């Protein structure tokens, strides 16, 4: 799939020369969440292990990736990647999710994650790792980590605006810039639970990084999701009828379906929450969000309707 232009704030790596002979690339104590998941990460340039050196992450070959002031790692390099949230979309996403309106979805996902960790049979709970691909502001990853007190998390996304939130979403959550349409910069069989929440998927890579007993958890909307809002706001993107069939066709060569549950409920919306909800979705690129406040027909409630599935690697 061709990738459109990336977030202009994505950083490139710096090659500063290999580490001196016999000098290990050490992980520093100043980034505990990142240090906890560092053994999973691999250099996107050469595949070597990474270590923290000052305000950067570096491999033994000298490929160096900056740690941003907000705490996320800029692993993207080379050609531009798929664009993520711009600044206004990230603001709207953070504001809407912080309102708790999507808490039922996050709670259901957290419960399924706990069952997935149990099913995975990790030898030590403290070694359990959760990867959120397309993590946005880190909202769902943080809720999952609340449910798993001994697990550590890593969220990856193309949008540095969203990652500024994700890096602070939870004390045990690290964040890194990456593009789902490229091979993930992670070791084989290194993840216990992989989250894909309203996000693009890379089935072959997901299978590679999951442990044999790990679980892929996929959250996606049904046709009824946000129906009242889509009816009131012309231009919002509809849920394609064949989307579910395409999901199963893409995942089937790599994963076996374990379980699916449907969550459907009604939640209240204030006018501002309705505007933020539209503004955080891809529909924001097709709707004049700034003028939505003038729409007297914005609904005061909306249907949440999603499917949450657990998959086992084949």
TrEMBL record:
Domain of life: Bacteria
Amino-acid positions noted as binding Zn(2+) in the UniProt annotation, renumbered to this chain: 43, 46, 59, 63
Keywords from the UniProt entry: Metal-binding, Methyltransferase, S-adenosyl-L-methionine, Transferase, Zinc
InterPro entries for this protein: 23S_rRNA_MeTrnsfrase_RlmA, Methyltransf_25, RlmA_N, rRNA_m1G-MeTrfase_A_prd, SAM-dependent_MTases_sf
Gene Ontology biological-process entries: methylation
Residues where S-adenosyl-L-methionine binds: 102, 137-138, 225
Positions of region (Disordered): 1-27
GO terms, molecular function: metal ion binding; methyltransferase activity
Family matches, as PANTHER family: METHYLTRANSFERASE, METHYLTRANSFERASE TYPE 11 DOMAIN-CONTAINING PROTEIN
Official protein name in the record: Methyltransferase type 11
Organism: Brachybacterium endophyticum
